[in-house]
Amino acid sequence: MARYGDPMSVPVILDVDTGVDDALAILFAVRHPGVDVLGISCVAGNAPLAQVVDNTLRILDAAGAPAIPVAAGAVRPLLEPARAARHVHGADGLGGIALPPTRRRAEQAGAVELMRRLILEHDRPVTLVALAPQTNLALLLRTHPEVAGNLERIVFMGGSASVGNATAVAEFNVWHDPEAATIVLDANVPTYMYGLDVFNRVAVDHDVAVALEHGDDPLARVVGALLGHRVALSEDELAEYTGLIGDAGAVCSIVDPLALRTEVRPVRIELAGYGRGQTLVDLRFSPGRDDAHGLADGWTNVEVALAVDAERIARLFLDTLGARA
Ligand code: RIB
Ligand code: CA
């Protein structure tokens, strides 16, 4: 369990669209002693906002978490309509895993106010962990730019230097609100990108997930059920088991950064055409002729995770959740 105020633990705020893998990330963050969860802000993404808030509160119960403040944020992206990923996370956003109702309640204050207060009041720089469309972060940084003075960095699950998922080239979180992601990149806060290049690599074996789901530990049963959630590709077809820990890997990267290979690279987000929402990651070792086309501007240096010791991160995840299958 996180030791609150422990100087060795990293103070974080999680921004989530809970979601099956956001749930795994919350469970890990609450349980790992090296992470101090100050609060959780919710945004529409995988599911509508109200569902995201309810799922988040129920997952905190499942984790046996202390009274961590949870606040509701944006109901849709800055420009785009909300586009829930029901085909991935199920109608309820948690893969149909019926967690018991919770007595926990969200804060009266909204997500932007909660994040502002937690960041400015904390006695150490805070790490913002964005596991969802970055609408809340964009609104925070535009409304209270002074928070940047007490941000250690932004760790975001999103983007890709290679394949997309929402489209052939764009990753869901950035694709859902590309303007927000651009505002966040432009905020001059040190940024770490945990994109699909590593997100798609860290998984738990099917037999381990099954053993967890049918074991004696209530928390491990929830973890196993979440890992075992199938992605319905069509009405009568279920995708092969994936077992991806998804967003949880971004939190694991904070605890065990050496398990990933990163490079600081120029990144920008495409806002137009088929590539809308694509994170363009410049992997060249020598400058090209971007200036000839007036394209040399608009890039931000980001620490991009390009490779991961997937077994090491999966082990960290399972050991932390006491899920010894
Ligand atoms: O592309 C993966 C991301 O989109 C994850 O954060 C998942 O939860 C969804 O939000
Ligand atoms: Ca998410």
Which helices and strands, and how do they pair?
Blueprint: E1 10-16, H1 20-31, E2 35-42, H2 49-63, E3 70-72, H3 86-89, H4 111-121, E4 126-130, H5 135-143, E5 151-157, H6 172-176, H7 178-185, E6 191-194, H8 196-199, H9 206-213, H10 218-227, E7 232-234, E8 237-238, H11 248-255, E9 260-269, E10 279-281, E11 300-308, H12 310-320
Parallel strand pairs: 1-2, 1-4, 2-3, 4-5, 5-6, 6-11
Antiparallel strand pairs: 7-8, 9-10, 9-11
How would you describe the overall organization of this protein?
- The chain has 325 residues and is of the alpha/beta class.
- It has a single domain, classed as Ribonucleoside hydrolase-like (Inosine-uridine Nucleoside N-ribohydrolase, Chain A), CATH 3.90.245.10.
- The protein contains 12 helices and 11 strands.
- The strands form 2 sheets. A 9-stranded mixed β-sheet has the order 3-2-1-4-5-6-11-9-10, with helices on both faces. It has a two-stranded antiparallel sheet with strand order 7-8.
- Helix 4 packs across helix 5.
- The longest helix is centred in the first third of the chain and has 15 residues, at 49-63.
- It is globular and about 65 Å long.
- The two termini are 20 Å apart.
- The mean pLDDT is 93.
- Calcium ion (CA) binds at residues 17, 19, 21-22, 45-46, 131-132, 247.
